[in-house]
Design goal:
- The chain folds into two domains: 173 residues, Trna Endonuclease, Chain: A, domain 1 (3-Layer(aba) Sandwich); 97 residues, Arc Repressor Mutant, subunit A.
- By secondary structure, the protein is an alpha+beta fold.
- The strands form four sheets. A four-stranded mixed sheet has the order 3-8-9-10, with helices on both faces. The chain has a two-stranded antiparallel ribbon with strand order 1-2.
- Strand 1 and strand 2 form a beta hairpin.
- Helix 5 crosses helix 7.
C-alpha cells in the first residue's frame, strides 16, 4: 500500500511530496547527498517536446541543453505507439484520442564539486520485479499477464528514451536494494536536520569534537552530551540537535548501516553510504 508524505527539505526550503514509502527512502538518500541541489518529484512526462529541466536554471552555466523528446515521439521511436496511455474526448461532435500526460518518480539535480550540473531520473518500485509487470499480485489470465508485461515494458522503455534525448540517464531503483538501517537512520536524522540551534558556535564545535573522540573510544552520545549540559542548562534538546545534525552533515562519521541510538555506543563508519550507492547519482555509468 502506498503511503504519501511530505518532506520539508532545508536546502530548497520547500516540501518534497512523495507518494510511497519506497519513494520516501530514495528521496532521503538524495537529500543526504551534498551534491544534490534540487529534486523534482512526480515529474510530468510531456506528450510534446519540452525544454531541458535545467533550462534557465542558475546553476547550468549558460550551456546549450538538448530538449526532452516528448512521450509521443518516444513511444513512436520504439514502435510502441499503440501502448501510449490515452483517452477519448468529444469536440464539436467528433471523437478525438488524446495522449495522457504521464508522471515519473524523482528527477534528481546533481552538481558535483568542480563539475557541471546534470540530472538523473530515478524510476522507483518496491521490488525490481515490479518493473517487469503491472499489478503483479493480481490473479490474471495468461493473456492479461502478457498484455501487462508488454505495457509495463513500453512504459519504462519510453521513459528512458524520453529522458535520454536530453542527455539524462534513467535509473531503475528498487526499495529493497536499500539497507533497512540506512533508511531508518536517514529518516530519523532528517527529522532533526532543519531544527534551529541557538547554542554558541564555539560550544557546538567543542561538542562535535568531543563526540568524535567518544566515537573512537566507544562512548555513547548521551554520555558526551551529558558532560555539556552544565554549559547549556535546560538545553539538552539543543545539544541532541547538534549531535544529530553533525551526522546528517557528515561532520560526525558514524556507521549508518547500524542502528543509531543515543544511549548505545557509537559505531565508526565502516563504509560510506554515498560511496556505496554512488552509481545511483552518476550521470553516465
Amino acid at each position: 500500500m502506498s503511503r504519501a508524505s511530505t518532506l520539508n527539505w532545508k536546502r530548497t526550503n520547500r516540501d518534497i511530496h512523495v507518494l510511497a514509502s519506497s519513494e520516501r527512502n530514495f528521496a532521503l538518500l538524495a537529500m543526504y547527498n551534498p551534491d544534490t541541489f534540487d529534486i523534482h518529484e512526480q515529474k510530468l512526462l510531456s506528450p510534446q517536446s519540452r525544454p531541458h529541466p535545467m533550462f534557465n536554471h542558475p546553476v547550468h552555466g549558460g550551456r546549450l541543453l538538448p530538449n526532452l523528446l516528448g512521450t509521443i515521439e518516444a513511444y513512436d521511436q520504439l514502435g510502441l505507439l499503440k501502448f501510449i496511455p490515452k483517452f477519448t474526448i468529444e469536440v464539436n461532435g467528433e471523437r478525438q484520442v488524446v495522449p495522457i500526460a504521464q508522471t515519473g518518480d524523482l528527477l534528481i539535480f546533481v552538481k558535483p564539486e568542480n563539475e557541471d550540473a546534470f540530472c538523473v531520473n530515478w524510476s522507483i518500485k518496491l521490488s525490481a520485479d515490479d518493473f517487469s509487470e503491472r499489478n503483479r499480485g493480481k490473479l490474471k489470465t495468461n493473456k492479461q499477464k502478457d498484455a501487462d508485461l508488454r505495457k509495463s515494458d513500453a512504459r519504462h522503455e519510453s521513459e528512458k528514451v524520453y529522458y535520454s534525448h536530453a542527455g539524462i540517464r534513467t535509473v531503475q531503483l528498487a526499495s529493497d536494494w536499500l539497507d533497512p538501517n540506512v533508511c531508518s537512520n536517514l529518516s530519523m536524522l532528517f527529522s532533526w536536520h532543519s531544527r534551529p540551534v541557538s547554542l554558541d558556535c564555539n560550544l557546538q564545535s567543542d561538542l562535535i569534537d568531543a563526540l568524535r573522540q567518544g566515537l573512537s573510544s566507544g562512548a555513547t552520545a548521551l554520555e558526551i552530551i551529558s558532560r555539556f549540559v552544565p554549559y547549556a542548562p535546560k538545553q539538552r534538546d539543543q545539544l541532541s540537535c547538534v549531535y544529530h545534525q553533525a551526522i546528517w552533515s557528515r561532520l560526525l562519521a558514524v556507521d549508518l548501516f547500524s542502528p543509531i541510538l543515543i544511549d548505545r555506543p557509537m559505531h565508526r563508519e565502516k563504509k560510506c553510504v554515498l560511496e556505496h550507492y554512488s552509481d545511483f547519482f552518476k550521470e553516465i555509468v
